[in-house]
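Bug: token stream looks shifted between consecutive jobs. Job 1:
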Amino acid sequence: MYLNLENQRILIKKALSISERFWGLMGQSNFHYGMLFPNCNAIHTFFMKEPIDVIGLNLENKVIYIYRNLPKNQILKLNFPIKKTSILELPQNTSLSIQLNEHLFFEDEDII
């Protein structure tokens, strides 16, 4: 799926399997895509090679939290119920145009 932000179209990979959720963006560098973790309210940046932007979303994909340039070796926990929250990880500085309370719209790959 894709997320359209201003003049950017960002590929978003959905982390559904245990392996995808475990590895996330660990060990990646110079990546140009994001990862969506459904039913998630906490992440860590251990073993990350570069900072990331972290967006917390509610069930309607409304932005409830933004943390830009989260450095490596950090733990981030959102104070929202896990079943009602998703976390979107993006390359650093990708979220500069995103605002709190904004609704993000994800586009399926088939719709181009």
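Job 2, same session, no restart:
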Amino acid sequence: MSDFYDTLGFDAQATINGGYYDVFKPMPSLHLSLKKAILECNKNPVITEIKLASPTLGTIRESINLTEIAKVMEKGGATAISVLTEPRHFKGSIDTLSDVRRAVKLPLLMKDIILSQKQVTVASQIGADAVLLIKTLYDRGYGETDLDNMIEYVHRNRLEVLLEVHTEGEFKAAKKTDADVIGINNRNLADLKIDLNTTKKILKTNSFNGLVVVSESGINTSADLRFLSQTGVSAFLIGSSIMLTADIEEKVREFVNA
């Protein structure tokens, strides 16, 4: 039986084949290290996320200046910014990442359903510093190459990899890869349900010394961040709760100082 992972995989392939990644605004990368930025942060390392919509919430914001949002995220103390570039389910745009690159000096993560080397090449040309790879999709054969080869290709393009997992088995396998950062998604993309205990359960039973681990999804309050901080994670990726707030700069600052 198919689930939302398969929907993402099918739709991403259609987007690639439809030429979405053939037209973009070139912007030289600053070649900043997401991993280094996290390790050198002396407060809570928060990766803020720019997204206009999600499969669960629908439209989050409309008619907004995304470059100004990026600037206030930086001013609020964000360690890095994730930019949704996936168009079908998140209303993302690859041009947004180029625009954000011009606006801020933080590491930028291209958040997309990346299955093709073409997408990685584009990421390197529009100013990204890192890309998201979702392990489940590679395990299901949606990638045009296997995960290890894709990670190698990302590195050849002078980008870093945030490798996203959701289960203990995926986390154990991810530790054996050359991914720069491992992200634990508290949302199960099979059914879109969130459980913050996902991060806690995985890290409680697996050693992760020397790894940079990011907890993703479901972080709505400072209490949520403090709960996850106790698990030993290195950083926090926060999107919807920041994009939904009226005062984005203050919300980012609240998380950074929680």
